[in-house]
Amino acid sequence: MIFAKRFFATLVFFCPIVWASYTSPVQASEIICRYCAEGRAHAMPLGLDLDGRYHYAPDRQVDVLHIKLDVTPDFDKRTVAGTTSITATPIAEAVDILRLDAIDLDIKAIRCDGAKVLDHISSRSDLRIAFAEPIPVGQKFTVHIDYAAQPLAGLYFRTPEMGYPATDTHIWTQGETHEARHWFPCFDYPNERSSTEVICHVPKDMTVLSNGQRMGEEIDADGLKSVRWLQEKPHANYLICLVAGHLEKLEKQYRDIPLGFYTQPSLFPHAANSFRDTPQIMEFYEQEIGVDYPWVKYDQVTIRDFSAGGMENTTMTTLMHNTIFSEATENIRSSRSLDAHELAHQWFGDYVTCKDWSHLWLNEGFATYYTHLYEGHKYGRDALLYGLYRDATGRILTQDKDKKPIVYNGYKNAMEQFDYRSYPKGSWVLHMLRSQLGEDLYRQCIKAYLEKHALTSVVSDDLRQVIEDLSGRPMDRFFDQWVYHPRHPDLDIRYKWMPKQGLAKVTIKQTQPINDDVLLYRFPTRLRFVVDGKVIDHNIEVSKVEEDFYVPLDAQPTIVRFDPEYTVLAKVKFDKSNEQLKAQIENQDDMIGRLLACDLLASRKTHASVELLEKTLNEDPFYGVRIAAAKALAKHGSDEAYAVLKKSWASQQDAKVRLATVEPIVKRYHDDTPELIADVLETEKNPAIQAVAIRALGRFQSDATRQQLQRFLDTPSFNNELTVAAINAIGQLNDPAYTAPLMQVLEQRQAEFSARDFGTGLTTLAQLAKLADDKQAVRGFLTRFVNHPQQGVQTASIGALGKLGDPQALSVLKAFADSSDSRISKTANTAIGQLNEVKPTAPKELIELRKNLQAMKQESEKLEKKLDEIQKQLEAQK
């Protein structure tokens, strides 16, 4: 009763003040598992935002010093049991009730070293522990919590019962953003750091991996192997990780740092392809950043049906299994960028961590930019700029309507922050800083930023302050327009040569909407002119809505370039004459200029433009420009342009360029395309390019197409790439004749598919059978998977029943309409809505009978009318 009163008082008087700084309730769709999540959260731990709009880091009731996890997973029951021990000290006030984040944990017992536990209470989102006497400020205590759980998030199983190969059995954990609370009680927010210790008990033939240093192993009283890991330097709670199971290992070393790469046995033959760059990446980062790798080791582990591309747990990155690739894909598939991105996080995200998710770009923007820097280091500056160009044109400059800045705390859930703003736009902010400060000063600033804030949490202003201190420059305007306000500048640029005055006139107009949300930008850049082969640069500052710049030159320039070093994130409209474009696309010193020229030439419907693009496609020294030329020819769209692509594809030695050349010609709907597809499939050996051609078959109905697709449905390939491509093509054709062969492939080879790809197969199957008179076989097949333990498969099967259009599936779908998993319930209710729109189809016999009855009725009406006329005639004759 004492605890109940004290708990109620906390709710009434404490929560409105403290909880207002916490994040709002989490729905199942908000969990970080971006694709195959089996987890769901019912309420955001750490309380509520009362207005539900803005999110900040929560108050820290105590300083967590150490977390010890001692757990035993049950691979058969897919459960976990163990003890969490948390050592902490109160910060500002004595603690009588300790609050921990905990979801769906079965608390068995609680005890405490340094204080007496009075009672505890568990809600759907947290665990509250009451002490007999308040623990005073500064006094160290350790709570030990015995618990068990069948986690729906945070800790995931991959077992034979779930459809995975027995040889690949494993468990893995995911913390970001707030999943840790699903498998152990904790303070689950990135503004808290502690050392951690993980002890895991597994069968003797399994491997156990976790953060930090492996301290040893032994056989416990139950005959299980007990492995202990210790992470001595403090790190954020979401970076705690455990992986255990059947794993094979590759080993390397950089200096005295052991590098381990672990993968499931079925993937191991190809593992060496994916992680050959890791030592070189680490060496480059140490040189570029100026801070040594800050941890004792670095492991990378693949996960079957992982929820994202990768996760940068401290000293141990977890990765999607399909980062493993076959050498047959040449340079089209690579793990290098993912490897570099996740390794960069060991400095940016782990060593220094964003204080709350509104400043996520301090994690993800840095990791993205340093990936580009490594590309530039390995392949030259053009590779760095090409990565930035692709990010800008493909991911950032298309977001004209988005009103959210990089730093934004008005999100509904933290996962909204994991978008283009935090990744490529954050990367571009760093590139602009590096360009304005100069490489040497930029490096000094980043080194000082890391050293000053090592093993702490940071906000964007911490970075700004370091730059100001070392550069002497006020950075408020820069951060205000690029970090704290949304969007980017739109620039309309016009050039005019004034021969009498010997002046080049360049007019720059900012055309973005300027209002309280979107600022008028101010930034330095330069104009470049090439006159008689000589490069002339003119530095300018853009600061007005519209401004004219005049540059004296000895003669009319052949090339005029804005921002030639590519230092400003902006959408630029700058039209050029044909002569200028020819000079620009032939300038071997300006890769970005050649890319821009390709884009402009695509809209010039002339023979000369096709000739220029053909020459570029076949001769340009940089593969990215050759790809741009191929895309420009496809966009040009003329028969002449397609003839160039068809003529050149087979001679392209670079597989990336070959892919860019093949893709538009096999996708073109033309009489000769099926023959071209057949030629590609006959001669091309790269499975990534074959897959593009197979998918293109989906545009052409023919016996030859059916034979080809049946062939590739049955063709084994690494990660089932060719079979999945055939399924994609079948989905486009929408021909029920493919129903039986597709169902047979899914039946016989289920274990070979990822959850996502098998789900695609189920969806395609439903689509094919939708127009069939008899849907019973397909309905029965789909229904078999509605309780599948792989959530990606389960969700796909439920959704597919809706697409099938069979009202007899309603009873099955209604069983999932009220599921506590919102992802499942939403899918089920959507499917029910689809079926309710379908009018029941009458049997053919009934339809025919109705037609006959209607005809008889019409005939009867005619006879009645005729009899009536005869009757009238007889009466008239009387």
UniProtKB/TrEMBL annotation:
<keyword id="KW-0862">Zinc</keyword>
<protein>
    <recommendedName>
        <fullName>Aminopeptidase N</fullName>
        <ecNumber>3.4.11.2</ecNumber>
    </recommendedName>
</protein>
<keyword id="KW-0732">Signal</keyword>
<keyword id="KW-0031">Aminopeptidase</keyword>
<dbReference type="GO" id="GO:0006508">
    <property type="term" value="P:proteolysis"/>
</dbReference>
<dbReference type="GO" id="GO:0016285">
    <property type="term" value="F:alanyl aminopeptidase activity"/>
</dbReference>
<comment type="similarity">
    <text>Belongs to the peptidase M1 family.</text>
</comment>
<dbReference type="InterPro" id="IPR001930">
    <property type="entry name" value="Peptidase_M1"/>
</dbReference>
<feature type="domain" description="Peptidase M1 membrane alanine aminopeptidase">
    <location>
        <begin position="277"/>
        <end position="482"/>
    </location>
</feature>
<keyword id="KW-0378">Hydrolase</keyword>
<dbReference type="Pfam" id="PF01433">
    <property type="entry name" value="Peptidase_M1"/>
</dbReference>
<dbReference type="GO" id="GO:0043171">
    <property type="term" value="P:peptide catabolic process"/>
</dbReference>
<keyword id="KW-0479">Metal-binding</keyword>
<dbReference type="InterPro" id="IPR004155">
    <property type="entry name" value="PBS_lyase_HEAT"/>
</dbReference>
<dbReference type="InterPro" id="IPR011989">
    <property type="entry name" value="ARM-like"/>
</dbReference>
<dbReference type="GO" id="GO:0005737">
    <property type="term" value="C:cytoplasm"/>
</dbReference>
<feature type="signal peptide">
    <location>
        <begin position="1"/>
        <end position="20"/>
    </location>
</feature>
<dbReference type="InterPro" id="IPR045357">
    <property type="entry name" value="Aminopeptidase_N-like_N"/>
</dbReference>
<dbReference type="GO" id="GO:0005615">
    <property type="term" value="C:extracellular space"/>
</dbReference>
<dbReference type="InterPro" id="IPR042097">
    <property type="entry name" value="Aminopeptidase_N-like_N_sf"/>
</dbReference>
<dbReference type="GO" id="GO:0008270">
    <property type="term" value="F:zinc ion binding"/>
</dbReference>
<keyword id="KW-0175">Coiled coil</keyword>
<dbReference type="GO" id="GO:0016020">
    <property type="term" value="C:membrane"/>
</dbReference>
<dbReference type="InterPro" id="IPR014782">
    <property type="entry name" value="Peptidase_M1_dom"/>
</dbReference>
<dbReference type="GO" id="GO:0042277">
    <property type="term" value="F:peptide binding"/>
</dbReference>
<dbReference type="InterPro" id="IPR027268">
    <property type="entry name" value="Peptidase_M4/M1_CTD_sf"/>
</dbReference>
<keyword id="KW-0482">Metalloprotease</keyword>
<feature type="domain" description="Aminopeptidase N-like N-terminal">
    <location>
        <begin position="66"/>
        <end position="239"/>
    </location>
</feature>
<dbReference type="Pfam" id="PF17900">
    <property type="entry name" value="Peptidase_M1_N"/>
</dbReference>
<dbReference type="GO" id="GO:0070006">
    <property type="term" value="F:metalloaminopeptidase activity"/>
</dbReference>
<keyword id="KW-0645">Protease</keyword>
<dbReference type="InterPro" id="IPR050344">
    <property type="entry name" value="Peptidase_M1_aminopeptidases"/>
</dbReference>
<dbReference type="InterPro" id="IPR016024">
    <property type="entry name" value="ARM-type_fold"/>
</dbReference>
<dbReference type="Pfam" id="PF13646">
    <property type="entry name" value="HEAT_2"/>
</dbReference>
<feature type="coiled-coil region">
    <location>
        <begin position="846"/>
        <end position="877"/>
    </location>
</feature>
